Amino acid sequence: MTRDLYARHRAVLPDWLALYYEDPLEITHGEGRHVWDAAGNKYLDFFGGILTTMTAHALPEVTKAVAEQAGRIVHSSTLYLNRPMVELAERVAQLSGIPDARVFFTTSGTEANDTALLLATSHRRSNAILAMRNSYHGRSFSAVGITGNRGWSPTSLSPLQTLYVHGGVRTRGPYAHLDDRDFIDACVADLEDLLGHTRAPAALIAEPVQGVGGFTSPPDGLYAAFREVLHERGILWISDEVQTGWGRTGEHFWGWQAHGRSGPPDIVTFAKGIGNGMSIGGVVARAEIMNCLDANSISTFGGTQVTMAAGLANLAYLLEHDLQGNARRVGGLLIERLRAVAAQVPHVREVRGRGLMIGVELTRPGTDEAAPEAATTVLEEARAGGLLVGKGGGHSTSVLRIAPPMSLTVAEAEEGAAILERALRSI
What we know:
Layout: H1 2-12, E1 27-31, E2 34-37, E3 42-45, H2 48-51, H3 60-70, H4 83-96, E4 101-106, H5 109-124, E5 128-132, H6 141-146, E6 161-165, H7 180-195, E7 203-206, H8 222-232, E8 236-240, E9 267-270, E10 281-286, H9 287-290, H10 305-320, H11 323-342, E11 348-354, E12 357-362, H12 372-384, E13 387-388, E14 390-392, E15 398-402, H13 410-425
Parallel strand pairs: 3-13, 5-6, 5-7, 7-8, 8-9
Antiparallel strand pairs: 1-2, 2-3, 4-10, 9-10, 11-12, 12-15, 14-15
Helix pairs in contact: 3-10, 4-10, 7-8, 11-13, 12-13
């Protein structure tokens, strides 16, 4: 049955729509931190639909909220008052840390980043954008144009002028040998030099932890130091929290808070986990920025009643059960367990991450050369052992991406680590 579905997939969907595994997997249902395939095999899910199943599969509180709302009305558009949308916007604005915040809902992180770029360029009257090397911000025309990851940027055409800055990758590149303080100073000096050669851009967009790029991040405080330079010139800071938001990093509710010394970002984008699988994205910005558009704009599907009901229930569950704290505690244990394993596996260059956002970078032993074939081997072996993980990486890197639902238990973390250990030793 799966092979037949794969043949049908290949016949009607684009060749560039990638699938994991030599024999692609059809996931039919899930519960908690587990999913099942069409053959009835059970897997511990350490990727959560690309960090989207944030709390748990088939979370009763969310499914109940969706069913009840769907029984009343599913959709009406933003042309009418929408109580669930207002209620979720109030919660998000209060949690954002941005003063006088306004919230606009979209259907995805791509659309959220696209909206943030529209706001920033309109507010600043500039189409120049600063972005980070190794970054990923979505698959729309403008988001691809600012993505600093060749593997996810299929065209050099763009409506924006993009200038790329150092700093998103701590352990590779020209500044990798420096200590954290000198690393930050060098990146700031690079930014200042870059700004001396161009007209002032509209904004810097940055992921606090680069997701698709392999869960890389700078030292804490880098973006605070950048913000001081940007603020002097009126340049906005956009924090792309599509993967880092809602407490996944454990230490903070938002990734930008590790860089909050100079104040919050001007704009925050979010998506993925807030909907726990429902299509929710959004933008938070100061009122003067959000209200700068001088033409009408609506969102047909952004903020529909049923997705907002899911978001409200999911956020309430996250906060009431302190899933941020769980990500910090269980994620910390998982990282240390994987580092102990990595010390005995020559292919592992680094285990890095925060909370339940962990990257295992693989290289050819004794070198810094990427080992994509090793990553593929581990992915397949982990699946055979009953564990699903992701892949990523930027320029000449290969990384396993581990991001389970944030309700992961200690026992499940130990189980997943044991499966991953066997898979790593099989390289």
